[in-house]
Amino acid sequence: MIKKYNLIILFAAVFVLSACHSRRAVMKGEPGEVVAPQPSVAEKYSAMMGVDVSSIQNGRLYAFVDQWMGTPYRFGGLDHDGIDCSGLSFLLQQQVYGINIPRTTGQQVQIIKRKYEEELQEGDLLFFDYDGKKFSHVGVYLQNGYYVHASSTRGVTITKLHDPYTYKYFSRCGAVTADNAVNASDSK
């Protein structure tokens, strides 16, 4: 009986500790507004991307990433039960930057203002050609060579652009601006 009681206490403690650990960042401010990040979020993502904490400035962006991190991949998905790559970039642009873009990767690549890799800035879209298909995958650039995307094997994750596996499929990148997104007829 005592062993059973100790086991229940142990499970309760693990549950309470894991519940505290799984708190997600809260998005503050309005889309398009840059607000300071929560300190714990800034520390987490600065360590993950190898940058100084002070370079994590867009609290809405990193709170969004934190809320979606680990969400499983699901083709056509657009919620926390599962999301695909274009759905993630669609929601991120809308909720972080206040810009409506088309829903699919093929449509998203049509509205970017192309850039060279060296010119990438936070929020820019990155396109990849997997399985011999042009522009079959999209991610959103963060900083220091890292981007967030919905991986078909790992779910929503952050990856280094120059990762040996992904970089060989890198195809195109560019900026989403309010000017070219406004003309997007299919934003859902």
Characterize the structure shown:
The chain is of the alpha+beta class and 188 residues long. The protein has seven helices and eight strands. The chain has helices at 2-21, 39-49, 59-68, 85-97, 105-108, 164-167, 178-182; strands at residues 78-79, 82-83, 113-114, 125-128, 137-143, 146-151, 155-160, 170-175. The strands form two sheets. Strands 3-8-4-5-6-7 form a six-stranded antiparallel β-sheet, with helices on one face. The N and C termini lie far apart (57 Å).
Task: For this entry, give a set of tags.
36% helix; two-stranded antiparallel ribbon; alpha+beta; endopeptidase fold (from Nostoc punctiforme); 7 helices; 188 residues
Mean pLDDT over all positions: 88
Q: End-to-end distance, in Å?
A: 57 Å
Figure out the total of helices: 7
Tell me the β content. 15-25%
Question: What is the number of beta strands?
Answer: 8
Instruction: Write out the strand line-up for the largest beta sheet, numbering strands in chain order.
Output: 3-8-4-5-6-7
Q: Report the order of strands and helices.
A: HHHEEHHEEEEEHEH
CATH superfamily of the domain at 71-182: endopeptidase domain like (from Nostoc punctiforme)
Compact description:
This protein has 188 residues and is α+β, with helices and mostly antiparallel strands.
Task: Describe how the helices and strands are arranged.
Layout: H1 2-21, H2 39-49, H3 59-68, E1 78-79, E2 82-83, H4 85-97, H5 105-108, E3 113-114, E4 125-128, E5 137-143, E6 146-151, E7 155-160, H6 164-167, E8 170-175, H7 178-182
Antiparallel strand pairs: 1-2, 3-8, 4-5, 4-8, 5-6, 6-7
Helix pairs in contact: 3-4
